[in-house]
Amino acid sequence: MLESHDTQSRGELQLQNESGDPLPIGFSTNLLTHDGRVTGVVAVFQDLTAVREMEQRALRNQTLAEVGSLAAVIAHELRNGLSPISGSVEMLQRELKLEGEQAQLMSVIATESTRLNRFVTDLLAYSRERQLVRLQLDLGEILAELCDTVALDPRAAGVAVRYEAGNQRVEIQADREQLRQVWLNLASNALDALEGRGTLVVRWSCPDPGHVMVEFEDSGSGIATRDLAQVSQPFFTTKESGTGLGLPIAQRIVERHGGTLTLHAANPRGTIVRITLPATAGGAARAA
To answer: Which of 63, 153, 179, 254 is deepest in the core (most CB within 10 A)?
Structure first.
């Protein structure tokens, strides 16, 4: 800028914070002059994280609207075809004694019918917003119950599921069932990443009197840096049989509760999913 004598300049830098997460920084510069001579430059920097998050939410909302306009038609057509296929396969499996390759082919039909039905269900869940039924909930009690349930999952046979409670009792105004859908989705993703070995830690804390933070940390292989920015986008998945809608649905539910859901690389390996939610007024200050 000093060389070109441009009086003003604006731009954006992509840096990283202490956790290694992307940190978009905007900057503007102005020349300082005295008696017609350039004596220096003033630079003003601005953290654009909130702006970029707002843009991402707007993009998700636009995608939601586009998906919603097609979801009903897609679901109707797919389920019209899937219902007789699934019913016929179940009847044939009961009545026929298939062996060898024929049994394998029938199994493939049944498996793929189930997968397609799951995709339709996820698609409808993403495009349709169920009304929130807010109740006064004890967050610690809900997460402790969740960990007990996750520990019984067959995929957790070789996994250490650990619950770390905060040192306070915290209450939130939330829809129990929809938040349970979020917790189960995040736990399921962690178990898939662990592949039967490692640790899943579910913890919560109160960073300030008005908010509560929940973290799901696994010691799995982690998410590639290039994929971190895409994993919450609809239909993006790294799983062979994934629909790419589980995490966007979870993020949508959290945002409707006035919270945020972010993904971070764990140290030395693994993934941390961090959810921040509003705490009930005074609820985070009650002694356990």
So the answer is: 179
